[in-house]
Amino acid sequence: MGNDCEDVHWRLVELNVDHACGLASLLKVIGRRLGVFDVPDILDVMIYGDYESVSQALGGSVVIERSLVPGLFSRAILIRSIPYASIEDLVVSIVINWDIPWYVAIIKELMRNINVRSSLRWEWINETLNRFGFMGLFNKIISQ
After folding, report:
1. What is the pLDDT along the chain (144 residues), one digit of tens a residue?
2. Beta bridge partners of 78
3. How far apart are CA 127 and CA 49, in angstroms?
4. Contact 82, 46 (CB under 8 A)
5. CB burial class (10 A; 0-12, 13-18, 19+) of residue 9?
6. How far, CA to CA in Å, does 36 sit from each of 23, 106, 113?
7. Which of the ends of the chain has fewer CB neighbours closer than 10 A, N or C?
8. Model's pTM, two decimal places?
9. What SS3 state is found at 132?
10. Which residues, 6 or more positions from 17, have their beta carbon under 8 angstroms from its beta carbon?
11. Coil, helix or strand for 134?
C-alpha cells in the first residue's frame, strides 16, 4: 500500500468500508486556511464500522479514527475526488476519539477559531450529539 490518503481510500473501497480521510489528512490539505499549522505527520482515516478488521487490513501505518455517525462517505468533502471527513463529522466524533490527544487538541483549537465556529452547521452537530446522547460529554471535552 502507498503512503497517502488516496491509496488508503481505494483499499477501503475494496473492503466496502464507510470511510473518509481523517483529521490530519484534511488539515494537511486545508489546514492553513483554517489557521491550524501544528498537524501531526501521520496518515489517518476516519471509519464507521468494524475498527478491528480495518486496523488489521491497513496494518500499523495508518491512524484510524472512529466516526460517530454512519453515512460518513456521503457527507464527506471531495478533494481531488478523494473523500475527506467534513469538519462537522470531525467535531462530533471527538466524543468517541477522546483517547487520541492530538485529535482532541486540534478540534479544541478549531473551536477557538471564530471563523471556523461560525461556519459550522450547528443544527446538524447539536441534533447528532443529542440523538446519540453525547451533548454533555462534548461540552465537557471542549471546555476543558
Report:
1. 445 899 999 999 999 999 999 999 999 998 888 888 889 999 999 999 889 999 999 988 899 999 999 999 999 999 989 999 999 999 999 999 999 999 999 999 999 999 999 999 999 999 999 999 999 999 999 998
2. 83
3. 21
4. no
5. buried
6. 11, 8, 9
7. C
8. 0.93
9. coil
10. 47, 48, 49, 50, 54
11. coil
- 88-118 burial by CB neighbour count: b if 16+ within 10 A, else e? bbbbbbbbebeebeebbebbeebbeeeebee
> Which ranges of the chain would DSSP assign to H, the alpha helix?
5-14, 23-34, 51-58, 72-75, 87-92, 101-112, 114-119, 122-131, 135-143
Q: Provide the grid cell at 13.
A: 473501497
How far apart (Å, rounded) are the C-alpha atoms in residues 144 and 140? Answer: 6
Distance CA 76, CA 42 (A): 20
Sign of CA dihedral 9, 34, 133, 62: positive
Q: Say which residues have a Cβ less than 8 Å from residue 36's Cβ, sequence separation at least 6.
A: 27, 106, 109, 110
